[in-house]
Amino acid sequence: MSSITGHSAIDELPTSDGRPPLEADRAGTGRLGDRIFGGLATGAGLLVVALVSLVGVFLVVQAVPSLLNNNANFLTSREWVASGAEPRFGIVDLLWATIVTSVIAMLIAVPLGVAVALFITQYAPPWLTRSAATLVDLLAAVPSIVYGFWGLTVAGQYFEPFAEVVDRVLGWLPVFEYTGTPSAKSTLAFAGLILAIMILPIVTAISREVFAQVPTTHKEGALALGATKWEMIRVAVLPFGKPGIISAAMLGLGRALGETLAVTLLLSALNTSSAFSFSIFGGGETFASRIANDAGEFDSAQKTGAYIAAGLVLFILTFIVNAAARVVIERRKAFTE
Amino acid sequence: MSAVRTLDESAPPATTGVDDFGGKSTGRALTDQLARVVMWAAFVIALIPLVWILGTTVLKGGQMLLDASWWGNSQSGITARRVGGGAVHAIQGTLIQAFVTALISVPIGVLTAVYLVEYGRGRLAKTVSFMVDILTGIPSIVAALFIYAVWVVTFGFQRIGFAVCLALTMLMIPTVVRSTEEMLKLVPNELREASYALGVPKWKTIMKIVIPTSFSGIVTGVLLGLARVMGETAPLIILGPYTKVIATNLFDGLMATLPTMIYQEYSENLQPAVDRVWGAALTLILIIFLLNILGRFVGRFSKVRN
Predict the structure, then answer these.
(1) CB distance from B185 to chain A under 8 Å?
(2) Chain B: residue nearest A135 by CA?
(3) Which CATH class is domain B88-300?
(4) Which residues of A are less than 8 Å from B135 in CB distance?
(5) Minimal CB count within 10 Å: which of A283, B105, B206, B213?
(6) What stretch(es) of chain B map to CATH 1.10.3720.10?
(7) ipTM surpassing 0.90, yes or no?
(8) DSSP 8-state code for residue A2
């Protein structure tokens, strides 16, 4: 299991010696101690199930009254006036910013993370393997808010020339149009880049775990047939690791969707009257950053409900992405066992 | 390969066959070398942000940490324009909240892992395992909103330190479950069987054999899980407003933490405050790194291994 992700690719395999664990019922003695302890363990398991269900229930229950009060279409409106007699709020802008930043993060972090994982498992000299893995893991130990502050005050200025070059070359495409407001470090593209750094350890950790499990016979077989190291990776390691890479990408995406503080600090909110822009060099707010930005102003039930509704959408998004990742891992297990 | 081919065309036709053979290997060897370079480059690129962030934080925040008042004073009475002040209020808050979070989530997490490994079979176990994965993926801001919806909106309580602990618990439980689960699975079945053969009940086998065998692994998981939740800022912003003075009561009043101190000083936008941002950031990173290193170190003593 990876300490970074909390996810395990080798989840639910038989025990270390390859045999299935003892059947629970046969090992228990039915004494009082056994029944109490077994009950406690089962209770803890049920508590986790209840907790996740309660998250859904509470968010729905508290979002519904506000949604019913909403004078705009929640799914198609760009407005966000959460309080007052006639609240009008919709998620289009939030959804757009959330997805754009997360997709940019994935496009950068997945290839890079896979390459780093290949480096650690296949290329790194033995003395470097362990510390290389630890170093990449340490990226996950830097708090989100530090990434945001660092991006804003230190790294952001170097993104300006990059944005200008992209605008000069590809600016005729609306997606790459860079107008200079907001400045490059406050755009969706830069937020995506910072998110990429933040999800890199997750993508690397999971890919690494899967690559390390490629059977030696596959690799040696490829090498014995005259494959170079890269060809061996292409025909033996990557096909074996493909489901792992896909689930790594999904889990990275899940993390990027909900990442809060770095994005909150970086992104500059759009003027409410500004026209919708398709550019990745535009401003905006994600679900998470909008909620965090306004966290101090949850004063009325109506207003709070609107933000909880936004949180609910985020919860559903991450739920779908994580469940999909889980399904991919399950299918790989069915395949390898 | 095609590049080599074009070069070959200028060569005399008689040698083409031989060159073709040689050219092919050269092309493959080149690709192989190129891949090697790309992998090394990827690793170096991945290290750039780490080195850059750590370097910046140490350079800009190191000065603050060398001052004794940083570790002895709070920000009480220090306005944003004034230099100095300490972080002891925030450090205390972060440590207290982390400790209480661990106190709640470790029993639940370990018991859930025991259930998954030792008891759970069939549908319910699959559901629990699935829900642990979903819990792993819940964004911290959603966890915070959930606790807000329960704690503040439904029950009408104040935003206090304990509410933060509850939100952090939700983020820490899945990490503890997964790492403990891995460790319990590594305990050889022979140990369990030997214990059963001596007539030891199952719960005593788990408490006296299985858990002690995997103890250091579990501790590692707990420390790494703690390291993960300590840097979380979103739940703090929603549930635990900042204060400049020392406050250690989780159940009453405001309570400072390092992440909210960073957020607060960041919003002041003045040079003395910015210095304190870097100081607090460095302090927080140091604590988290220490936990990480301690966790990995304890893991070395594990009796069971992958």
Answers:
(1) yes
(2) B47
(3) mainly alpha
(4) 48, 51-52
(5) B213
(6) 88-300
(7) no
(8) -
